[in-house]
Amino acid sequence: MDLTNKVVWVTGASSGIGEAICYELTKHNCKVILSSRRESELLRVKAAMKISEENVLVLPIDLEKTNDIESWITKIIEKFGRIDVLVNNGGISQKSLVGETTEEVERKVMEINYFGNVALAKAVSKIMVKQQAGKIVVTTSILGKFGLPFHSTYAASKHALYGFYDSFRLELKKDNVSVLLVSPGFINTNVAVNSITGDGTTLNEDSPAQINGMKTNVFARKLVGAIKSDRNHIYIGSKELLSIPFKTFFPNLFYSIMLKLSKGK
Known about the structure:
The protein has nine helices and seven strands. The chain has about 260 residues and is an alpha/beta fold. It has one domain (about 5-260): NAD(P)-binding Rossmann-like Domain (Rossmann fold, 3-Layer(aba) Sandwich), CATH 3.40.50. It has a seven-stranded parallel β-sheet with strand order 3-2-1-4-5-6-7, with helices on both faces. Strand 5, helix 5 and strand 6 (about 175-185) form a beta-alpha-beta unit. Helix 4 (about 105-130) runs parallel beside helix 5 (about 150-170). The longest helix is centred in the middle third of the chain and has 29 residues, at about 105-130. The model has no long low-confidence stretch (mean pLDDT about 95).
């Protein structure tokens, strides 16, 4: 896909990999919609992008408020007339033991990471089907391929995305709409710091894995390269990606090692 003049909607654009993706897209002469809950941060990102007003739209959204999706899309169509790429990147992380995680927290994570994500993609896909062209890009996680202690609900939400989009991709094929699943490993963001705990409070504690993870600008460059290709799925990260084939071929040993590594956390 040639991204020149394409209209690209990025959720989770106010920080982390979403912010980095927006910066990378400016190098490809895209028209960009920036979305997240924090309008002030979106305006900061917009200023840093140094992009002309006719090529950018700041659109604050809350993925828990799916009843507002049609109004969000209306604003985009009024300005740009189409949506070529949706980068469905908005989400929330969680860190707590299963027995200490309230149902309210579990539902919140699923509402944002799965139901909000899916509702947005379904609505945007209708526009893309009418256009007979488009691409839906979904940020999952390597934890969409296995679970770890303290991350049960987060892993569940990412597993669910794989099941949904692997199916949805096949349904959209006939209308020239493609789906790219992106599975990050450890990326140097504040995702761990901003995780919610079992009672819904913010963790406010960083993870050594995130601190030492891939830089967001490197991730964004690889992601945008994948968007331009015809790939259905991509893992982006470093040596932690070896956990995927290791778990596939040596599952008992894999879980034994993960259990040992998780003790004391």
